[in-house]
C-alpha cells in the first residue's frame, strides 16, 4: 500500500500564501511612487502627468472593487485568484517596457483592474479553509501583508533601481507575482478536493465547522437598500473623505521628500518604509483597543467610535510635516499620520459586519471601498496641479483635517441605535 504525501497544517500554509500575495500586491502598486523621480525623468512626465496616471489607476481600482466579488463568486477562488495575479503581474512587467506617458498609463490601468480581486479572493479562501473560530486570525494574517509589502517595497525597489535601472524593479516585482501563481496553482484547491490535505486535518476542519457554524443568515439587500440606508451612506462617506489621505501617503510622500527635502533615491529607500512599519502596529492596536473596550462593558458602537476617534486625533500631525525644520521630524509626523489612519481604518472596515446582516456585509464593504477609491482618484487628479502651481502645504492641511471632520459626522449621524442590540436587533441597517 502506498502512502499518500500530505502537508501538515496546510491551512496555515495557505494563509501564508495569501499574506505573500498581499505583500506583492502592495509592492507592485507602490513601485511607481518610490521611483517617481526616475520615471518622470526617464519618460519626461510632469507632476500633472503623474497625478493623472495615478488617478487612472484608482478609477480602474474603484470600478473593479465593486464588481470583483460577484465575478470571483462565479469563477471560483483558485482560478479567480490566479487570473487576477497573473494579469496584474504581466502589467507590472510591461511598466518596464513603457516608452511614454500613455503606454505607462495603460500599464497602470491594467494593474488597477486586476489588483482589487485579490482581496475578496483571499477572504473567500479563508472562508473555505478556516472554521468560524479561526477566520479572524486568517484574515488578520493576510491583511498584515499590506503593511509588510508597503514597508519592504521602498528599500527593495530602490536597491534594484540603483543597481540595475528603474525598469528592472518593475520586471522583478512582476516576476515575483508569476512565481506566486505557480505555487498557488500547485497547492490550492478547496479542502474537499485538495490532494495535499491530510486526513487528520480534514477531519479536524469538518468537525470544527459542524460544531461551530450555525446555519447562515439568509438576510440580504440590494445595492439601493444599502446606499440609501443611514449606515450604508455613512460608511461610503467616511471612506470617501479619508481614503485619499492614505493614497496621498502611498503615491506622493516619496515625491514630496525628493522635491522639498532633497532626498535621493537611496535616501527614499532608507526612510520611506518607517511610517509603514509604525502603521503596522496601528492595525494590531486598533483592533485590540475596540475589542478590549467591549470586554470592559462598553457598547459595540461606542467602542468602535472611540477607537476611531483616537486614530483621527493623530491625523492633524500631517499639517506639521511641511513645516518641520528637518526631514526626520517630517517623517516622524507622517509616522503619526499612518499610525492614526491604521487605527481608524481597522475599525471602519469592521463596521459593515457590525451594521448589516450577513447577506449584505460584502456589498456594503465593497461600496464603501469603491467610495474611497473614487475619492482617491479625484484627489490625485488635483494634487499634481496644486503641487506644481503652489506647494504641498494645502495638501497636508487637508490631510490633517479630513479624519477629524469625518469622525464628527459619524458621532452625529451614526447613533448607537444603528448598532445591533441583543434585545432589539439592528434597527438601522436598512431604512
Mean pLDDT: 83
Number of domains: 2
Query: What is the ordering of alpha helices and beta strands?
Result: HHHHHHHHHHHHHHHHHH
Pairing-aware structural class of the strands and helices? mainly alpha
Low-confidence stretches: 207-218, 422-427
Percent in strands: under 5%
Instruction: Note the overall shape.
Output: globular
Overall number of strands: 0
CATH first level of the largest domain: Mainly Alpha
Reported for the largest beta sheet, the result is: none
Corresponding CATH superfamily of the largest domain = MFS general substrate transporter like domains
Q: Distance N terminus to C terminus? A: 63 Å
The amount of helix comes to: over 70%
So, CATH architecture of the largest domain? Answer: Up-down Bundle
List keywords for this structure.
single chain; 431 residues; mainly alpha; Growth Hormone, Chain: A; 2 domains; 18 helices; 78% helix
Ordered list of secondary-structure elements with their pairings:
Blueprint: H1 10-34, H2 36-43, H3 47-75, H4 77-95, H5 101-114, H6 118-129, H7 135-164, H8 166-187, H9 199-212, H10 223-228, H11 230-261, H12 265-271, H13 273-295, H14 300-314, H15 327-348, H16 351-355, H17 358-389, H18 393-413
Characterize the structure shown.
With 431 residues, this protein is mainly α. The chain folds into 2 domains: 9-211, Up-down Bundle (Growth Hormone, Chain: A), CATH 1.20.1250.20; 222-431, Up-down Bundle (Growth Hormone, Chain: A). 78% of the residues lie in helices and 0% in strands. The chain contains 18 helices and no strands. The protein has helices spanning 10-34, 36-43, 47-75, 77-95, 101-114, 118-129, 135-164, 166-187, 199-212, 223-228, 230-261, 265-271, 273-295, 300-314, 327-348, 351-355, 358-389, 393-413. Helix 1 packs across helix 11 (230-261), helix 6 packs across helix 7 (135-164) and helix 11 runs parallel beside helix 17. Residues 207-218 and 422-427 have low confidence and may be disordered.
Amino acid at each position: 500500500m502506498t502512502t499518500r504525501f500530505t502537508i501538515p497544517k496546510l491551512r496555515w500554509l495557505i494563509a501564508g500564501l495569501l499574506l505573500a500575495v498581499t505583500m506583492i500586491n502592495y509592492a507592485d502598486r507602490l513601485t511607481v511612487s518610490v521611483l517617481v523621480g526616475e520615471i518622470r525623468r526617464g519618460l519626461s512626465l510632469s507632476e500633472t502627468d503623474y497625478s493623472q496616471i495615478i488617478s487612472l489607476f484608482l478609477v480602474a481600482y474603484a470600478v473593479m472593487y465593486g464588481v470583483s466579488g460577484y465575478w470571483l463568486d462565479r469563477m471560483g477562488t483558485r482560478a479567480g485568484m490566479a487570473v487576477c495575479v497573473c494579469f496584474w503581474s504581466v502589467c507590472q512587467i510591461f511598466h518596464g517596457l513603457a516608452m511614454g506617458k500613455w503606454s505607462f498609463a495603460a500599464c497602470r490601468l491594467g494593474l488597477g483592474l486586476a489588483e482589487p480581486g485579490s482581496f475578496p479572493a483571499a477572504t473567500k479562501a479563508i472562508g473555505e479553509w478556516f472554521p468560524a473560530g479561526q477566520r479572524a486570525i486568517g484574515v488578520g494574517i493576510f491583511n498584515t501583508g499590506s503593511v509588510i509589502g508597503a514597508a519592504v517595497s521602498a528599500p527593495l525597489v530602490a536597491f534594484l533601481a540603483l543597481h540595475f535601472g528603474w525598469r528592472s524593479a518593475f520586471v522583478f516585482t512582476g516576476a515575483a507575482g508569476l512565481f506566486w501563481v505557480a505555487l498557488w496553482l500547485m497547492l490550492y484547491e478547496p479542502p474537499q478536493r485538495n490532494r495535499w490535505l491530510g486526513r487528520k486535518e480534514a477531519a479536524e476542519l469538518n468537525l470544527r465547522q459542524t460544531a461551530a457554524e450555525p446555519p447562515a443568515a439568509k438576510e440580504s439587500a440590494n445595492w439601493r437598500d444599502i446606499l440609501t440606508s443611514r449606515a450604508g451612506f455613512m460608511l461610503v462617506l467616511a471612506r470617501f473623505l479619508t481614503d485619499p489621505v492614505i493614497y496621498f501617503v502611498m503615491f506622493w510622500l516619496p515625491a514630496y521628500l525628493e522635491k522639498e527635502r532633497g532626498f535621493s533615491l537611496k535616501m527614499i529607500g532608507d526612510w520611506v518604509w518607517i511610517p509603514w512599519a509604525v502603521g503596522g502596529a496601528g492595525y494590531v492596536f486598533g483592533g485590540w483597543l475596540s475589542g478590549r473596550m467591549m470586554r470592559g462593558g462598553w457598547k459595540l458602537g461606542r467602542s468602535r467610535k472611540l477607537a476611531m476617534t483616537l486614530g483621527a486625533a493623530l491625523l492633524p500631525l500631517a499639517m506639521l510635516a511641511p513645516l518641520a525644520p528637518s526631514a526626520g521630524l517630517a517623517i516622524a509626523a507622517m509616522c503619526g499620520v499612518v499610525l492614526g489612519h491604521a487605527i481608524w481604518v481597522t475599525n471602519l472596515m469592521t463596521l459593515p459586519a457590525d451594521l448589516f446582516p450577513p447577506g449584505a456585509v460584502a456589498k456594503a464593504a465593497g461600496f464603501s471601498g469603491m467610495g474611497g477609491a473614487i475619492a482617491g482618484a479625484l484627489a490625485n487628479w488635483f494634487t499634481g496641479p496644486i503641487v506644481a502651481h503652489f506647494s504641498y502645504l494645502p495638501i497636508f492641511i487637508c490631510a490633517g483635517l479630513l479624519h477629524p471632520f469625518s469622525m464628527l459626522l459619524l458621532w452625529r449621524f451614526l447613533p448607537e441605535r444603528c448598532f445591533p442590540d441583543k434585545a432589539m436587533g439592528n434597527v438601522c441597517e436598512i431604512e
